[in-house]
Amino acid sequence: MKKILLITSLTALFSMAAFAQDATGLKTDKAPPPPHKMEEGYRGMEDARSMTIQQAKTMHDGASVSLKGYLVKKTGEDLYQFRDKTGQIDVYIPMAIFDGKNVSPDELVGISGSLDAKQKPVRIKVSHFQKQ
To answer: Where is the signal peptide (predicted)?
Structure first.
C-alpha cells in the first residue's frame, strides 16, 4: 500500500512540472535583448529626461531633475558648483554618493536629484551621480 501511494505521489509531482511548462507568464527559454537594443524601459540615468540648468531652475520645489555637465569647484563641505552650457547651480552631494569615484572639472558627469527651490540660491540635492 505504501509503495502504491509513493509511486502515485511521484507520478503526480512529475506530471505537474510538465503541465507547468505550458502555463502562461514569463518564459525563461530566451535571453532578453542587450540594453542598447531595447526600445523602451528604464535603464538608469542614460534614459532619464535630461534637462538644462536653466530649465531646472524654473521648476517647483522638490521636482526631480537630471542634468549633464561639469562639477567646477567645491564651495563647502558637501556643496559643489555644477555647470552646463546654460548656466551654473549649487549642488549638494554627500560623500557617500560619490562611492569612491574621483572627478576632475573637465570630466562630464550626470546627476539626478531633487530641486530645493526654498533654498536661496536654488540648489539640487543629488541622489545619483555617474561619470559619463
So the answer is: 1-20
Contact between 127 and 113 (Cβ < 8 Å):
yes
Q: Please write the tens of the pLDDT for every residue from 42-78.
A: 445 454 567 899 999 999 999 999 999 898 888 888 8
Longest dimension (CA), the chain: 84
- Compute the distance between CA of residue 104 and CA of residue 109 in angstroms, rounded to an integer: 10
Residues 6+ apart with CB under 8 A from 43: 35
Q: Determine the Cα–Cα distance for residues 1 and 120; give it in Å rounded to an integer.
A: 83
User: 83-103 burial, b for 16+ CB within 10 Å, e for fewer?
Assistant: bbeeeebbbbbeeebeeeeee
The tens digit of pLDDT for each residue in 98-127 reads: 888 888 888 888 999 999 988 889 999 999
Amino acid at residue number 50? S
